[in-house]
Structure formats: structure tokens, C-alpha cells
Write a structure and sequence with these properties.
By secondary structure, the chain is α+β, with helices and mostly antiparallel strands. It is built from 3 helices and 4 strands. The chain is elongated, with a radius of gyration of 18 Å.
Length: about 100
């Protein structure tokens, strides 16, 4: 449950210096939901985009400091999903190799 801040009760994430929770919403029209949230003052953390796991996904922080992720399923063939997954894994492997090169 979420509630407004009240004296002697709950504090918002801005008062606490952050949050350890991310709330997630699945939507049939994530683009419209995203637009409404941004127009209402949400800050974009991860841009809404088509992801390799077959969802349109993004992350925002609302004006009160709460973290949200939003997504919807997108039509994608198994072949497309495998190709996009392979590309994403290449990027992760490059990051891991770069990290290993910087270790003492």
C-alpha cells in the first residue's frame, strides 16, 4: 500500500534519500501510460524501449521519489528474440572483459 506522508507516520523516498523498492506495472498501452507519467513530472531513468526479452520496458522515478518500471508484451518471433538476446549478451561480455582488464 502507498499513502501520503503524514506526521509521525510514513516518510517519502525523498525524505529518506532513496528507495529500495521498484513498483512494476504491466499495461496494454505502455506508451500512453509512460507519456502520462512523464507529463505528470516523472523523471526518466531508463528510456522506454523494445527489449530483447520480448517486452517494451522502461523505468521512471515519480515526483515523490518512488521508482517504477512499466512494460507490455510485444510481438516477437523466437528467431528475433534469440538474435536480440545474442546481441545483448555480446554487450555484457564486452563489459565483463573490460572489467577484468581493469582489475589489479
Amino acid at each position: 500500500m502507498m499513502s501520503d506522508v503524514f506526521p509521525g507516520g510514513h516518510k517519502d523516498p525523498l525524505q529518506l534519500g532513496g528507495t529500495s523498492v521498484m513498483l512494476h506495472i504491466y499495461s496494454k498501452n505502455v506508451d500512453a501510460l509512460w507519456r502520462r507519467a512523464v507529463e505528470a513530472g516523472a523523471k526518466v531513468d531508463t528510456q522506454l524501449d523494445d527489449m530483447f526479452w520480448g517486452e517494451r520496458y522502461g523505468q521512471i522515478t515519480d515526483p515523490f521519489g518512488h521508482s517504477w518500471s512499466m512494460s507490455m508484451r510485444i510481438p516477437m518471433s523466437r528467431k528475433q528474440m534469440n538474435e536480440q538476446r545474442a546481441e545483448a549478451m555480446k554487450m555484457f561480455q564486452q563489459d565483463e572483459q573490460a572489467d577484468r582488464g581493469n582489475s589489479p
